[in-house]
Design goal:
The protein has six helices and nine strands. By secondary structure, it is α+β, with helices and mostly antiparallel strands. It binds iron/sulfur cluster (2 copies).
Length: 181
């Protein structure tokens, strides 16, 4: 799915999707969590003009919706995934735990999404080369949100992430192949 991008926003130094998203294409295969060999960390794609179509069309929702700069994935540690949004689901892929997860910006935005009737899911990556895990947490977070209980919300998010981190990780079976030419 390709969503219209905000005109005045670019990825800057963020390269999180070039690390965490798996690719299994004829010309480029990289396991989940492996920084693409064509990516210059903190700078971006070194084969930008000839990058695969998937790379041209996959964008996190920070590039699509008006979220504050704090939400940029390399700053927040949170990639808001685009898949599922057409079904009213928002998946917060927490690639790194940061102070942002305890911030008011995170709490108020999650509360807004819940008030709009969205389903919220949390997801975390496993070791390189394994599938991430994900759990819908809408009903788990709702009581804290409806009570305006910010500390309680933080505690529930942390408990969810702890539980997800105990997942039995499964290999994605992708063997790295870099043949973009
Ligand atoms: S080819 Fe470029 S855009 Fe695609 S994953 Fe690699 S560095 Fe990122
Ligand atoms: S995760 Fe989002 S902001 Fe970061 S590089 Fe990918 S599309 Fe750009």
């Amino acid at each position: 799915m390709s969503l219209p991008l905000l005109p005045d926003r670019d990825c800057g130094g963020c390269v999180e999707c070039c690390r965490v998203i798996p690719l299994d294409l004829p010309e480029l295969a990289k396991p989940t969590g492996q920084l693409c060999a064509y990516c210059v960390d903190g700078a971006g794609c070194s084969v930008h003009a000839i990058r695969p179509q998937t790379c041209r069309t996959w964008f996190c929702l920070w590039r699509v919706v008006e979220l504050s700069d704090d939400w940029r994935p390399d700053r927040s540690g949170v990639i808001v995934r685009p898949d599922g949004i057409d079904r009213g689901e928002i998946t917060l892929f927490v690639v790194r735990r940061t102070d942002f997860l305890a911030s008011e910006a995170f709490f108020t935005t999650a509360a807004l999404w819940l008030a709009e009737g969205m389903e919220l899911a949390l997801s975390v990556p496993g070791p390189v080369g394994t599938y991430p895990c994900r759990a819908v947490v809408t009903d788990w977070l709702r009581p804290a949100v409806e009570d305006g209980d910010w500390p309680g919300f933080i505690a529930r998010v942390e408990a969810s992430l702890d539980r997800l981190a105990d997942h039995d990780w499964q290999p994605d079976g992708i063997v790295a192949r870099y043949e973009v030419a």
